[in-house]
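Fig. S4 source data, part A: sequence.
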Amino acid sequence: MRTDKTEVTNKNAGKASGNNNSYNINKQSIGKQTVKFTNPPAIVSRACIVGQMEGEGPLSSFYDQIEPDPTFGMNSWEEGESEMVRRAIQTAISKSGLSKDDIRYILGGDLLGQLIGTTFGVKGFDIPLFGLYGACSTCGEGLSLAAMLVAAGYADNALAVTSSHYGSAEKQFRFPLEYGNQRPLSATWTVTGSGAFVVSSTTDINIMSGYPKISAVTTGKIVDYGVVDNMNMGAIMAPAAADVIYQCLEDLSMKPDDFDKIITGDLGKVGSEILIKLLRDNNVEIGDKHMDCGVEIFDCEKQDTHSGGSGCGCCAVTLAGYILHNVENGTWKKILFVPTGALLSTVSYNEGQTIPGIAHALIIEA
C-alpha cells in the first residue's frame, strides 16, 4: 500500500468531510498500473463470428456463426470485415436480452487504417463510439475501458468489439494474397473473426450473479526490444506480455498459482516460448499455467498456419467462445487474460523504425 504524501492528504480530506472511509472505498487504483474494482463489472453477453478456416479449426463448436464466404456477402474484404463486426454486435446485444438503446457506449477497433472495419460496422447502431487502436491487444483495451466506464457509473452497459480479417490485413501490412509470397515458420495467420462483449454493472447482485466478472485490469506499457521482422510478431509482443504479467502480479501481490490459466492473445508458438523464458528469468514460472489463443485457434500442422493465429479477432473470438465457456461452467474459476499487440505501421516500418509491442491484462473470475 502506498504511504506517500498524496495518500495521507486524501485520507485527511475524507476525515474533514465527515466520511472516514471515503478514500478507501473510492480508491481502486493499485500499484503502478492496475485497477481493482470494488464492484466488478460482469460480462453478461458475448458473441463470436468467424470465417471458414477458423470454423475448420479445433474450436469450431464454440463460435456463434461460421461464414464460408470470405467477403461475408459484401463486395470486398474490408466491407466483409465491417459486416462481421455488425453481426457480432447484433448477436451480443440479442443474447444479452437488452436493446441497442440500453448500450451507452461502444468501444471498438481493428487493424485497418482509420478503423474502417469498426466504423462502418457500427454506424447503423446509433450508439456513441470510442474508436480504439491497440493492434492485436485491442480486445483487452476495449474490455478494460468498458469495465472502467461501468464501474465508475458512467454507463450501465457498454459493448466492446474488435475484429480482423486475413485478406484485408495481409493486403495492408504485408503482400496482396495474389502475390503468393512464402511465409517463414515464425509467421502467424491473421484470424478472420470478430468478438463482441456486453459489459454491465453489478449493482443488482441478484441479477448479475452467475456471470463472469472483470475483477481487475492492468494497463500495459509500450515495450520495444528493437525487433524489425514483421513476420515474427511473437518476438515483438512477448516482452510486452511479460512486462504486464509481471506488473499485474506485483501490483496485486499475486502468484501464477492464483490462476487456473494465464492466457495470452496471439504470441503463437515462437512468442510463447520467449514469454515463458523472459518471466522465468525474473523468477516467475507460468509454464504449466500458460495458454495462447493463437496456438489454440488453429491446428497448426493440419492447417499449415506455422506459428499459429494472430490479429485482433484471434483472442476476441477465443475469449468469446472457448475461454468464457470454461469460466461459466466452472472449469476455470479465475484466469489472467492478456491480449497482445504489435504496433506495426506501414509508414514507420517503411521508414526503418522498429516495431513496438503492447499488452493488457484482465483478471476474469467465475
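Fig. S4 source data, part B ends here. The chain has two domains: 42-200, 212-365.
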